[in-house]
Write a structure and sequence with these properties.
globular, 2 domains, Beta-Lactamase, 51% helix, 10 helices, Arc Repressor Mutant, subunit A
Amino acid sequence: MDAPGDLVGRTHRTLRAVAVHEPGGATTTSVAREAGLPRPTVHRLLTSLQGVGLVEREPDTDHWVLGPELYFLGVAAARRYDVTEAALPVVRRLALATGESAFFSARRGEETICLIREDGAFPIRSHVLFEGARFPLGVVSAGMVVLAHLPDREVDDYLGRADLAATYGPQHGAGEIRRHIAVTRTHGYAVNPGLVVEGSWGLAAAVFDQAGSPRWALTLTGVAHRFGADRIPQLGSLLLREAHALSETLARGQTRG
């Protein structure tokens, strides 16, 4: 029998794996592969979750999708955690001003999760980030900028445990990540020069909570030739201005709450 902590962890991994495949859903085998769990275990978990409305099975495809109970729980949680209402006009303004794709991501533990995407007018876009996409800290520009603004002891602890190079290539080795942290701290914003997908660049600035912790990030992404050496400082300055203003807006909201 699973210990309570093991069961909760496996359930969480299973729900996240289903979420990765939204909106079309996924087979039990695909969910098991994404969650890194045995298929029989995942099938039992999904069946139990279906019983309480946390997942559903599409009758036409037999694919698992997120259930209505998650929506209702999310609505309840939004009263405490939702910051997208304040972030959405900022993201739209960035997309309009630059022509690039703009994003708002939130830190969740040792990951960043993309919450908002708005595409600008430039017709060629990067598709690395999308709403719901998760990346470890240190990966993509949002993960880079959040990690760079954490205290050194947290960075050292994280890089001592995380093996980003195993999944994302040698360009994400600890030494390279530390070099990006140093550059990010100098400029204030992070640059991802096509490290996840060749030719797909990104810039990000951290958004801070009332305590001064990097909780969110604003990002611009696009193809490499749109992020030349002459334009990056302009985009970076714009991101920093918008991130600073959004930090103040969110801090005021936290104070009222």
